[in-house]
Amino acid sequence: MATTLKQSYERLNEQTVVELAQKLELLSDYQNIKVNEIGDGNLNLVFRLIEEDTGKSIIVKQALPYAKVVGESWPLTLDRARIESSSLIKSAEFAPEHVPEVFYTDQDLALTVMEDLSSHVILRKGLIEGVKYPHLAQHIGTFIAKSLFYTSDFYLHPFEKKELVQTFTNPELCKITEDLVFTDPFYDIDTNDFPSELKEAVSELWSDTLLKQRAASLKYKFLTRAEALLHGDLHTGSIFVTETSTKLIDSEFAYYGPQGFDIAHFFANIALNHASQSFHISDSLRREEYQSYLLSVIKDTWETFTARYRELWKTEGVESATKLPGFEEEILNSIFTDMIGFAGCEVIRRTIGLAHVEDLDSIEDFNGQIELKKRVLKLGSDWVKNAESIKNIDEFITYIRSV
Ligand code: SR1
Ligand code: MG
Question: What is the Rg, in whole angstroms, of the alpha carbon atoms belonging to the chain?
Fold first, then answer.
């Protein structure tokens, strides 16, 4: 890692980002660097610097003091840059193959310099185009098993675990999730975003007391259960892929939370893509085949996750309770049930909340999009309300197939 460079916060531009790389000696030919601001997310600036002659490149990601998606009227902590780089560095301890390498971090400038993954594509884009990734399920299942287990009380000394809980205390970003995922979509609140054609379906959600109670209970778990270090925003836009490689990025929402949360967000976003394919792939045989692939990703991810988690529990569990018969089963069952409820909240909020998904919103047939969104809302609502009665991953998948 390069030497420290202290200066107070200022927003980088295409010139200052090259000066920064030069001071840090991260590239070699500073006269011939191409710079592009490529950030297409909701919150940050992302610069790609490429040396034209050698093709050598790096990414400089800088947090802005507000949420880019809304503008300066929504101030947002710069500390999220520290959270993101710390989480990438932590993940690299047990799964370096699944995160970009961090070359430099600066908390004052709220930036992280990291490996350029331009050989990869954002998973969401690939899925919308109907591309299959043969190793995706195995990679995500393994990553989640390792990151949950190795940051939990089952593996860490309680002092070390509590120190990590402090390091990853992330109140402002958690508040975004508390509001946008667990609260706002269930009430008539300004941040929600849906066309008038969905108003009747949305009003039904807002008047569903059981649904609101279950969502409140899931929010309470999110608020209080410091079980393991989470990515915190593991939708398909936070995953970079090639045919053989899977990298998790954008972990600024990382914090200690309930173990079922990340896998739920991954599954919910795969389910949304599955639903959208009736419009993206017109050939029915190809569509069915691709949708079966998506369902197999869910099944294989869950099976890989549970197998890897059980293995770690058996071979590396240090907490005495890991030796108790039946306790591992209890933990995995509760991860499963929580996962279903969290996935339900995610599909609802991606349909009517502030932050949507391209999978659904890019559907050109407007009436078709509305009818599909109604079915997706029903799916989310069923998952939130029936989480306890869904017994295994095949039953969970049956719900996705029915949309
Ligand atoms: C203002 S942030 C909106 C959403 O974008 C992030 O990726 C998170 O999913 C957040 O909820
Ligand atoms: Mg993000």
Answer: 21
pLDDT at residue 221, as a whole number: 98
Residue of minimum CA distance from atom 5 in ligand 1: 42
Which ligand is nearest to the Cα of residue 250, counting in written order? 2
| Ligand 2 mean position, distance from CA 41 (Å) | 6
Q: How far apart are CA 96 and CA 363, in angstroms?
A: 36
45 neighbors 112 (Cβ within 8 angstroms): no
Output the pLDDT for position 3.
Answer: 46
Task: List average pLDDT for each run of 10 residues in the chain, which is 403 residues long.
Answer: 66 95 89 90 89 94 88 92 98 98 97 96 98 98 98 98 98 98 98 98 98 98 98 98 98 98 99 98 98 98 98 97 96 98 99 98 98 98 98 98 97
Enter the tokens of residue 359: 């999978």
Q: Which residues line ligand 1 (CB under 6 A)?
A: 42-43, 67, 69, 176-177, 180, 233, 354-355
Compute the distance from residue 234 Cα to the ligand 2 centre, in Å. Answer: 8
What is the distance in A from the centroid of ligand 1 to the CA of 64?
14
User: How distant, in Å, are the alpha carbons of 234, 269, 294 from that of 124?
Assistant: 11, 8, 12
Q: Of 211, 173, 8, 186, which Cα lies nearest the Cα of 86?
A: 173
- Residue the block writes with tokens 């998952």: 383
